[in-house]
Amino acid sequence: MKNAPSYVPGHGLLKGKTALVTAAAGAGIGFSAAKRCAEEGVRALMISDIHERRLGEAVEKLKAETGLQEVYGMLCDVTKEDQVQALIAAAEEKLGGVDILINNAGLGGQKRIVDMTDDEWFKVIDVSLNSVFRMTRAILKVMQPRGHGVIVNNASVLGWRAQKEQAHYAAAKAGVMALTRCAALEAAEFGVRINAVSPSIALHEFLKKASSEELLDKLSSTEAFGRAAEPWEVANTMIFLASDYSSYMTGEVVSVSSQRA
């Protein structure tokens, strides 16, 4: 099976809720997650990114393709604490409270450990792991007093499995998994759930530009379906974790992968 299945229509799984999605401009998992939120019935949505032009285009595209008009965009570098605080404050005001946070921001790269500089290591860790901590800390301060809320983090199968030239990214994503589990225990007593998805390879335009065709073909060939996932297939699992259908799940990391065992 090398062709993706048909796009699944929304079923109102998030009807009446609000959502905030980081790193959601462009063609990747973040935008797909935001679009699925709108299609599943959120009453208001905010997306963030560091690219101003792409962010504006994403907001307009979401409005046009989903019909949801309460879509807001805000520039945010999630490695900066002041910008994280400003994003949460703006989302709380514009959305009337954030019910769902999807932490999607991440940064990869290919480099052998012996050739990797401190700056290259720290940059990937900061974007892919520290940002999840900052966003989680900030949103819990408003979700916990309300007694409800859901956080969905984007990890990776590399948090479990080894791959050459991916030590920084794998370490960051393993950290996201551990952070998810620990934060979930702390938040449970306040009625807040925290889970994560762990995708293998989801093919989109940015990934095609950042990676060689040879590498992408090699990674796709290791999948049981003989293809990479569509970004919306990963987003579907995020939506499930954000919805009330997963009400008894917290601290879980759900693999979105067809890799052979």
Descriptive report:
This protein has 261 residues and is α/β, with parallel strands linked by helices. The chain is 46% helix and 14% strand. The chain contains 8 helices and 7 strands. The chain has a 7-stranded parallel beta sheet with strand order 3-2-1-4-5-6-7, sandwiched between helices. Helix 1 packs parallel to helix 2. The radius of gyration is 17 Å and the shape is globular. The model has no long low-confidence stretch (mean pLDDT 93).
In short:
By secondary structure, the chain is of the alpha/beta class. 46% of the residues lie in helices and 14% in strands. The protein has helices at 29-39, 52-66, 81-95, 118-146, 167-188, 205-210, 213-221, 231-242, and strands at residues 18-21, 44-49, 71-75, 100-103, 149-154, 192-199, 253-256.
- Give the low-confidence spans: none
Kindly state the number of beta strands: 7
| Estimated helix fraction | 40-55%
Distance from N terminus to C terminus (CA atoms, Å) equals: 18 Å
Count helical runs: 8
Structural class category: alpha/beta
Strand order of the largest sheet: 3-2-1-4-5-6-7
Q: Can you give the mean pLDDT?
A: 93
Shape: globular
Radius of gyration: 17 Å
Assembly status: single chain
Strand content: 5-15%
The main β sheet shows up as: 7 strands, parallel
Query: What is the ordering of alpha helices and beta strands?
Result: EHEHEHEHEHEHHHE
List keywords for this structure.
alpha/beta; 8 helices; seven-stranded parallel β-sheet
